[in-house]
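hi support,

uploading two proteins for the ticket. first:
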Amino acid sequence: MTAISLTASKSVLAASLYSVTDLGALTGQAFSYATGINDSGEVAINSLTSSFFYSNGSVKKISPLPGDNQLGVTGINNLGQVVGNSVGNNNFTGNDPFLYSNGITQPLAIQDAIPYAINDRTQIVGGSSKLGPFLYSDGIATSIGTPGTVAYSLNNLGQVVGILNTNTAFLYEKGQTTNLGTLPDDAYSVANDINDSGQVVGSSGLTGVDDGNAFLYSSSTGLQDLGRLRPTDLFSAAIGINNLGQVVGFSGTNNDFYTPNGNGLRAFLYSDNTLYDLNDLIAPGSDPGFTLTAASAINNNGQIVGRGAVNGELHAYLLTPTSSVSVAEPTSGVSILSFGAIVTLFAALKRKGHSSSTAIQQTS
């Protein structure tokens, strides 16, 4: 793709500064990452061997389903309910979806599937080897597409987004599936999240996420290219969006998206038509030595979670807005029209091209 770039002016823009909470240190794990946050600031966290629920300054370990010994969490809603996948072996061939609520891990009535998101109506979406993309509600899982298609997120209106078996992003609503297509000249796209206004974020590339650009979609504008943080970056991806239209994700050159050294990846915030490096928005005195490498979710209060490198380890983090200040607008050229360990769980699909095999896809 040929990027159309402009050099930003040196005017000032209003932006929040953030305090950093090292959630990885609270888990006691050398490797951890946050997958979701709700409006109460509760966070779902994964490590190499365990998963955790963070609330009010402390973490609670989530137990796998009976008979299993490992698990991974993917989504959380405003009721504090968490969804994920529980397994009994190291190759993740047996997928046991669960709902964690009020301290109890409960199985879902669907087999060989991975749930990826849950809304405030306790509706759940994901991917199943038998049903393909599914919508789970009131104890019943309904297929909403064809095998090889995976649903990654849904909003409180029941709109669902994900990736079709044709390697393109989709939006599902009231029984109708819309192929969102790609940015110009691309052949791949994936939709990662949707807010209650129907705005969708994801990535569009020639072959996958590691050569793609972050996008923001709405029914009125279509796919809008959010660009990359630096002209030298090889890719960017939008992972989460809140109801204010603020977008988070990552941009960089290192396609090891879970690197613990911090090299070649930076977490970003897209707000008010500007792409910010979150590392530039840390409040003075709050930085615990982090390099913020990826942001995975942002709640409606502006809190952000993700993963970052600190002292050679990968830790989950929580960013909390502390103030609104004037900061210099980025001066580099920015493309404004173009974008057996449990760490492998949920990592393959968005990092590589989509496979149409019956194996359940896994996402970052």
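and the second one:
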Amino acid sequence: MGVTPLIWLITIAVTIAFFVFEFFAHVRKPHEPSIGESARWSAFYIGLALLFGVGIGVFSGWTYGGEYFAGYLTEKALSIDNLFVFLLIMTGFAVPKKYQQKVLMVGIVIALIMRGAFIAVGAALIENFSWIFYIFGALLLLLAYRQAFAHGESDPANGKFMRLVRRVLPVSEEYNADKLTVKKNGKRFVTPMLLVIVAIGFIDLVFAVDSIPAIYGLTNEAYIVFTANAFALMGLRQLYFLIGGLLERLVYLSQGLAVILAFIGVKLVFHALHVNELPFINGGEPLLWVPEIPIWFSLLFIAATVAVATVASLAKTRRDADKKRRDTFEGEKVIHAPED
């Protein structure tokens, strides 16, 4: 793709500038964003991400453009899944609405830093060890299974990791505005706000494990991996407030993501076989008869899976709501039925 160090430097600088702007323009003063504010900024960041993808297609070729769009769509879907866990953490810690923006902002910055480190490590591994595709593929297949059938901790605020943190750190029981520590009777305590940030940072680390191998299954270009992740995380804070109520209705999102991760896992294994160098597989020779899944098919498959999971989720929640209303109505009829 031919990305120069100068382009990398400009991209990272612009990304940092966006987050600094976000902090001073929206997060520094605690408030709960309105639906209108959240919708406008969500649309802005999504539009910016799409425009950037068009730019990649025009200047670097539509093969790279397709890889970017497939990666961005995958990372955005995974990020929305992250939001559901963030919602559980916010609820578990009873974070006041007006301080949730700051928590999300810090969590998103931590996520980008961690993913940046994983991207650099992944790029180095792919450059030097082609067999890493086998490991990435197997990891994604395992994560797909866990995504589909395991739901993790139901209460991240009281999970094993957070219980360990509470044993190590002296914690106050109440919030002190948005401060991270408070001094009581001459002793320094950390506030629940710091615990929330620690919890979200830990969750970000867990999510990076499936996020980075997933997008490396769609492109080998570290620049596309980074920009797709950056744009997927931009606007995530506004999206949280915009679709907070919708998150609970996306009941099939986990299954949809499991299908996407499994598909990319299979794609990675196919690619590993196609460039095989392991001596105990086919004598160390590539298996050229193994098909390489084209990026256009990957993009269509991922988009279709996200669409089907969303439509099926909304249809199920509507049916469940209708059934609940009917059952309530029938129950009221029985209660108020005249006696003989």
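thanks. also noticed: The radius of gyration is 23 Å.
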